[in-house]
Amino acid sequence: MTYSDERGTFIWRYVGGRRIKIYTGQSLPDAMRESGKFPSGKTSDAEKQRKIDSVNIDFDRDNTLPGLNKEDLEELGVEDKPVLLKKSIIDKNLKHHPEVKIEDYNKILGQSLYDPDLIVPGHDDKPYYNFVARVGEDKNTVVLLQVKNTNSGNMEIVNLHWSYDRQRGSIKAKGDKIKKQGK
Known about the structure:
six-stranded mixed sheet; single chain; three-stranded antiparallel sheet; alpha+beta; 9 strands
């Protein structure tokens, strides 16, 4: 259903659990920014580095990390929440990804979550996104993050690992396919 006001016609839509007006011809990011209900602007390099440096995983308990960068929240259309890495996920990841050494966890999480160069959907029907950061000539960090509908009310890390460029290409292709399908 469309509505009108002094500015023109619009529709109401829920984005990240928040109701916003989207005017005819207006892009979703512009509508989100204009609503004032989502963080706007870019995260400074100093703030990104502060977040990266704050990652210090304790392997004996659940870990709460800072929320994502403003521009990433805006791109995903979600509100700012802390990022949770559960002990059960740490244990699962240690078992299924033995190539990821304990000393690499802080780097993988910090780089992927707070300085990604690629964010793509991770699954067709779930609110999961792959955060990927290049850290070498043929080496990337990957974190799969559930951004909505978590029991904890936080964003939750589902998986983390290293990838090489070939794997990165297939992550990107799968994410692009999901985006194209409109999921």
